[in-house]
Amino acid sequence: MKQNFLLLLGGASLLLSSTVWAQQKGTAALKQTAIADIQSQYDFYKKTELQIWNYAEVGYKEYKSTALLQQTLKDNGFSVDTGVAGIPTAFVATYGSGKPVIGILAEYDALPGLAQEAVPEKQPKSGMSAGHGCGHHLFGVASIAAGIELKKLIADGKLKGTVKVYGCPAEEGGSGKVYMVRAGLFKDVDAVLHWHPGDNNGVMTGSTMANISAKFRFHGLSAHAAGAPEKGRSALDGVEAMDNMVNMMREHIPSSTRIHYVITNGGKAPNVVPDFAEVYYYVRNVDRDIVRSVFDRVVNAARGAALGTDTKVEYEITGGVYDLLPNKTLIAAMYKNLQQVGGVNYTPAEIEFGKKIQTSFTYKVPAISEAATIDTLQSGGQGDISGSTDVADVSWNVPTVGLSAATWVPGTPAHSWQAVASGGTDIGAKGMMVAAKTMALTGIDLLSDPALIQKATQEYQKVRGADFQYKALLGDRKPALNYRDGSE
Q1: Where are the beta strands (DSSP E) in 7-90?
Q2: Do the record's keywords include Signal (predicted)?
Q3: Where in the sequence is the domain holding 460, given as residue range(s)?
Q4: Fewer CB within 10 Å, N or C, the chain?
């Protein structure tokens, strides 16, 4: 009897092993199909991202960009819900039914002041003021490409579940995803995939900086600056006094904190005492409690400046995002897929372009060949990023994972004319395809392996904590749809 039981147990074990092997073999075949199919659409996706690169629409003004992405998804069988979360340029595109539900984030906003031709020297693009210095034209198209590929596999009966592509406007300071989270658009999602253009290929393993952004508006009295200065009260004096106090404050805040500002309105003529002036501030730190505390001190500086200059001040919080919550389970899965996809290989002409771009930098740059490599998988906080993203708010509500793909010449910083230039060439398009393939392959894993989602969810719940309650850093304000007014 015991011998028969052992034989039965051994047979069951062998059957289980055979089933797992067959499942892995089937998944591997699906991944090869996905890689080949996405690559076959290279020309189409390149044409699409270049259209958005040329549109170069800033946050909450991305009407043509969002329309193009939405139409592409509709043409591929997705149902599209547009104008979600009170944002005209936001959307959610859905295909499939039932669990699991996989979300893919797409961005498409440009940055003011970065219009640039796709050439390796600084050459502003005529008739334009904004440019894709963070590569969001590539971001959006790679994301819809991954979503479309997963849709095809669901439609063919090779995968089961639902894929949702989220059209996310105004990442650059507008906190678009925060409003989408707040509206409950991610409440039924099991895992979220995203990526970001960069000068390297790697999976994001660390966190990002939480931030609060706000516009401080000073009101004074206008007067002739020479004939009757005593009758005026300069709003610009209020701004400058505030800036001076904040700059002195830098010595007495945690050293990892970042504070940036630009004067967006300082008056119109030197001989007129400005009755209105505005300064735009960001406060960042990896600890959102520190962000809140330092921001409160910036507000006090504004109030003190108004008191000292006999002006009045008001402020509007225009954005606020959390620090990113990494998920090691999803990181490991995505990294294997990135290794399978590989990096970006340059043609001789692209190498020449890249080397010329690199001559514009004043620091030591990596070898051009690094675009073809995959970064090692870092652990802990070694992958922390000094920037901020509203993806972070998503990550505190759904297990989330992302990657960087080499869409820019190695050594290129984001928010630069060099990034805009690279993003308008095949260098950018090739990196975009790395991201699209990697997200599609990770989506295949998630749709075919319930244990992967379960493990990622358990980790997410443990790290987030049982008592966690999400509260947006920007409060309950409506989307700041006009925060880019005047900067197009």
Answers
A1: 79-82
A2: yes
A3: 12-207+323-464
A4: N
